[in-house]
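Lab notebook, bench 4. The sequencing result for the construct came back, and we need a structural model before the next group meeting so we can plan mutations. Quick request posted to the team channel:

Model the 3D structure of this chain.
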Amino acid sequence: MKTVWLRKQGADELLLFFNGWGMDHRIAAHLLHESLAADFSPDFLVCYDYRTLEPDSWFIKEISRYDCITVVAWSFGVWVAQLTELPVVERAIAINGTLHPVDAELGIPPELFHATLSTYSEENRHRFNRRMCGSREALALFSTMSPDRKTSDQLEELERLQESMQTGYLHDVAAWQYNHAVIGGRDLVFPARKQFTAWKGVPQTVIADMPHFPFFHFINLQEVLACCRK
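Done. Here's the predicted structure in token form:
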């Protein structure tokens, strides 16, 4: 995976953001910009591009110095985060994703995943984005922070994720657990009813009109973190 520091000011707290499939740092940069205007203080590290699930060699040493680590993960990043070696995590929020990302009962319907994988192209990339965003307004916002990546890069990442799920990265219980799940009622990628089942027993925030892309509804990181206080 790729990791990029977007804020490194020597804070005691780190917010570690695991982005979704096909993304880069731009969504996180947008969130940080909006968050700083509301007095956001933690350091901020974003992870993305899961063609390999191994972080950079400096990763664990750098993040181990923090007194408090918060994980925010979206979509496929929810699964990747729990496969990543982390120090003690104070709190962890999953947004529109599960620990079983391709699953008939707990995640993306397998037929939808395989259809995306087998037909992904520049044209279908735009179709996927429309499906992910759910409205013209959300799509317009997403277009201002859409990833600067080639379609071929995204397809390769999806292929590697499939291989990881099938081979060496079967899910094991991590040393930390998610303590809150945010579920979009209009998610057409990870259907809401499957998220409800996947997060049974975990506190949930349900936003009835939220599609898979959640950052039209969450303006900044403080609004995401506030879910844990409900």
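DSSP finds nine helices and seven strands in the chain.
Will bring this to the meeting.
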